[in-house]
Amino acid sequence: MSNSFLDRTWKEIEPAVHVILGDEKNSSLDSFMYTQTYTKVYDYCTAASSRRPAASSVGGGPGDGSVRLVGGELYARLKTYLKHYLENLKQKEGESFLQFYIRTWERYLIGSTRLNDVLDYINRYWVTKERGDGHREIYDILSLCLLSWRDYKFHTNLDILMSEIMEQIRDQRLNKIESIGNLSVAIKSFVLLGFDVNDLKKQNLSVYINDFEKSFLTETYNFYAEESQNFIKEYGVVNYLVKAEQRIEEELKRLEELNDHTRRPLNDCLNEVLITNHADVIRSELTPLLDQERYSDIRRMHHLLKRVPMTIDPLLQQFQAYIRQQGLNAVEELKLQLEAQQKEQSAVVEDDGKSKPKKGPAYDVDAKTYIQTLLKVYHKFQNVVKESFENNEAFVKALDSACQSFINYNPIATPKDKSKSKTPDLLAKYADEMLRKKPEDMSVDELMTVFKFIDDKESFEVWYRRFLSKRLMGSTMTPEDGEREELIIGKLRSANTQEYTNKITNMFNDIRVSRDLGTLYKETIMQEHNPKEYVSDLEPRILDSGAWQSIFNKSNESILLPPMLINTQEKFASIYQSKFPGRQLSWIWNRSKVELKANISKPGKPPFLFTVTLFQMAILYPFNEADTLSVAELLEATAAPVDVFKANIAPLVKNKLLVQNPPGEEAITKPHTTFTIVKEYTSKRIKVNFASGVKITDSKNEEKDTNTEIQMRHHGILKASIVRVMKARKHYKHEQLTSEVYKMIDRFKPTVADIKKAIEVLIDEQYLARDSEGTGYEYLS
Amino acid sequence: MSVRPATVKKFLEVTGTDSEEVAAFFLQRNQQKLTHAINDFFVNPQLAKNVKKEKVTVKIDPKVKEIFDQYKEPLPDALGKAYIGIDGTVRYISDLGYEPEDIAMLALAEFLECPSVGVFKEEPFVTNWSKVKCNTIEKMSDYVRNELAVKLAEDEEYFKKVYQYTYKFILEKNERNVPTETAVEYWNLMLPETYKPELETFVRFLRETDHKGITKDQWNMLYPFLKIYYEDNKLSNYDESQSWPVLMDSFHDWLLDS
Prior knowledge:
Chain A: This is Cullin family profile domain-containing protein. The complex is a heterodimer of chains A (781) and B (258). Chain A is mainly α. Chain A has 29 helices and nine strands. A three-stranded mixed beta sheet of chain A has the order 1-2-6. A three-stranded antiparallel beta sheet of chain A has the order 3-5-4. In chain A, a hairpin with a 5-residue loop joins strand 8 and strand 9. In chain A, helix 14 (312-352) packs parallel to helix 16 (393-408). Chain B has three domains: 5-51; 62-154, EF-hand (Recoverin, domain 1, Orthogonal Bundle); 171-257, Cullin, PONY binding domain (Recoverin, domain 1, Orthogonal Bundle). Chain B has 14 helices and four strands. In chain B, the strands form two sheets. Chain B has a two-stranded antiparallel ribbon. The interface between A and B is medium-sized, with 21 and 22 residues.
């Protein structure tokens, strides 16, 4: 091979190469020079190849046989040239290194691409063959150019390059300069300078990641660590929330200038330095912001923190605790208010010098006020969840948990630590008031909102039935009232189970069936020989003792029926027994009422209509025969217990139907006291109600009775659940049993002691036995 | 014995069973309600098997029977069975050389399967003495002294068995619980001297809280409870979520308060 041919060729193409890569004068590359260079390279390669016979046969060429591919020498010359060229690029006066780098790189990149075209013949034949033979250190011309840049221009100046790039970015962050258009050219050069030696077409980000991204992230972290710290100190958290959001936006915009690989690490870096590191300080602002009702600031806080999900959990806890405390405060305030009112009232009464101080709790709780106090807190924070937390599910849950806690346990519902919550009672009372008085500011929806939070649903049901029994037994229910009752039952059923409302529904059925029985009775006596022997207007109430337990409690007071009612009672009993054979009918006299026509008006006036209790009727009946009767005689005639007698006769005396001698409360039950019926009764009204003056049960006992009924229900449910678990497990450890039973029961929250008591009862009844270790139980049946 | 003979009799009649224990078991399980107990018996027949103990045939020694006859009541009980009543019991115990308030007498009661205080039934009396070949008062006295009393002091499991049996023994018929004062008497009699201070505190608690009666479960669990209370005198490791009866939880609370 002739060196002179190579020298000549190189000398001919060198100026063109220089112009292509970019000379000092920025000469343009004309197409003539382009084709000329290409031809010269082609000539050299082909001529050099044909001049020497092939050493080995590599592929079949046309004409005279094989051709050895030439180009290595030219490649080597170019390589040396590139090194020299790059090392001699000069920084212009007044030009920063970065500007110099960007300027020369932009030009060099164009030049390299052109050069790759011009010398394409070498690429296509010689380079391809060499790389095919496994010479990985040989590259196509473009790659050779880039590698040369990397080795002679990039690596040697990396420090100053990076420091100037980072300085630029810093200036931007400090708002000193605006656009970074050119900067991105420099940054993108890092991407192009990464090579995969084995596959030149594959992008390799090693240079970008190692030489740029790492320091970029460190610098970013350091910059914002300092900035955020100072900012919070100077302007406070609320302003920082805006600032951080804005910074994140800016930095994400910067990603356009960077390789997409940086997106995730940059995100992580910003989240850590701007959010995670300050999460505690940011969150500590939640309480004051809630106090000041600055909901849009809270929204901003949530928006920022939400970028780092793990910072949300403590926020949720804080939010939940705050709501709970607000709920407790609201109830405490109400309690103090009620106590103060009570004190005021008793003070006024004391001034009169008449009344004795009242016993019992220091205040009465008005169900409506209480429930509305709870709801007010709930609605307030429901709004916060919407305004500030986009109704996010986790925050809705935190709200619910907080409400559940303070609604069931608060200074009014549970004045003592272990006392049973009064909220279910008060809610049932709320429902009762709503159904009876129908005020506009009470609604079924509000009832159901609180119901949802109540732990002890059983308690509510028992209380609800107690009030319902009064509504059903009391005055007549209009069809509209009935619809309202139905609506609530429907809602309770869908919020719970069919079974939950069974007893309530049965109570309505009982009333319906009773009405039918009344009709049947009427039809039956009309067919009797002498219908006059019976009471025609009988309104029987046949009630199931399970659902109507409140009415059955302590209602076994008996009397001698006035003779005129005995036929009626027997008739009705026989009708009932024939319709429902096998059912036991017990008579509850103290709930019965009678309407009497009394012919003791002034002459010429219509007779009075008296509404009296059955006991009052029994007391009045003997007065048909005598005008004056003693207590002893009346007690004998009625066989009523003394206290019942007293309660029933008092309204008759008070309303001046009977004249007591001697008068006074003390004398009312003394055997020799007498009662005389007035000859002519005077009243402004034709209808007089003596029955309403009779008290059946006082509220204190009612609460006790109801709580006993609830306790029995709880106990029954617990026993059933324990047996169900044990039946399946046969042998079970104590802890497992209690936790399974606890999970099973959703109608109320049993305490550990409740469960243990039920277990002990089952042991006593020999359904369970302790196992030999004493830490578990065996099922015996 | 003061079982409601009518219910037991009726139960045996209807079910065709001959075991009084089975009848008593089912009646107790059903709060002495006859129809429920009978129904329970037919629904859960396997329970009856647990009640009936396997009876090993033992050759009855007529001499033992003679001793029994010396003490027995002149008239049989409501079911027509012979038994030693309270007078016979006092004489028998004194002839054995013991006071009635001796812990060994509880072991004896357990050994002879006494259904309640002051009653020895013929069948277990004769069978069990014959089984261990004691046919004179002297041999019986020796057996109590050298076998039962020794075993009671040395064999923890046996002690537990006698302790648990004692509840049944002292439970008055038709009562659901043993009155607290009775239970306390027997605890003082039975429980090891080591636990006396702990027992005293526990009894003080029962009295202060005016506790009315001790259930079988509370009785059974007191012994293991005293053990842990003895080892941990402030009950600082006591855990209410464990399976201790609620009574022990209340005691724990009481102890913390005082």
